[in-house]
Amino acid sequence: MLEHRALLDAPFARIAAVRCAGLDSPSEEVSAAAVVLVRAGVFRRRCDGRAALADVTTGYLQRPGETQQVDHPAGGDVCTSIGVAEELADRFAHAGRVVVPPAADLLHRRLLAAAPPDRADLAGDLLAALLPASSINSPAVEQARLMLNAAPSTPLAELAAAAGCSPWHLSRSFHRVAGITIGTYRRRLRVRAALDEIAGHADADLAAVAVRHGFADQSHMTRSVRAETGRTPGSLASSMN
Known about the structure:
Layout: E1 2-10, E2 13-20, E3 28-29, E4 34-40, E5 43-47, E6 50-54, E7 58-62, E8 67-71, E9 77-83, H1 86-95, E10 98-99, H2 102-113, H3 119-130, H4 138-150, H5 156-163, H6 167-178, H7 182-198, H8 206-212, H9 218-229, H10 233-239
Antiparallel strand pairs: 1-2, 2-9, 3-8, 4-7, 4-9, 5-6, 5-8, 7-10
Helix pairs in contact: 2-3, 3-6, 4-5, 4-6, 5-6, 8-9
């Protein structure tokens, strides 16, 4: 028996947490392209006459038209299914096995724990981390930075479309060029704009400041400011008076 919980429904990735009780599945035809990462457990996937183990170090790509069957030699599993467009599925197919290095594993964990507003950026970062490095497109990164400075909440898919590349390529290139992920860059812009507003205003309405600068709420802003500075917005507002 499978349990599905939707985490993200974005133009470039549809993500769900999937839990299986451990019963062997009958053969079934795959209906949509997806990259599947294992969060816990191990199972053997048989697809079109070939068998391969999937565990926390090695996921797999599934594509429409395939027929698959899953055996559980050691109990149930917990997976993350990342639905992707055919173009991206082609990239994963060309790359071969879906190996999950430590950096990708950490991004996977962060994605599962993230608040909904942060999931799209983390999904792009995760997909990029699972693929071999591609060429750096500095103009695309510069275009994304310009757009984010004008509107930090601009969605990843919109940034990529304006830059003329795919979301995973932009995420990969951005990290290599800027040294930080798009999510971190977005957070830093928001945090610094919020700090500029509360500087010298110890009585600032922090909830209103949070909304104006694209945070989900005051708690989200507090977490972001603490991550960047080690202090809360309230203490910083007082110290900047």
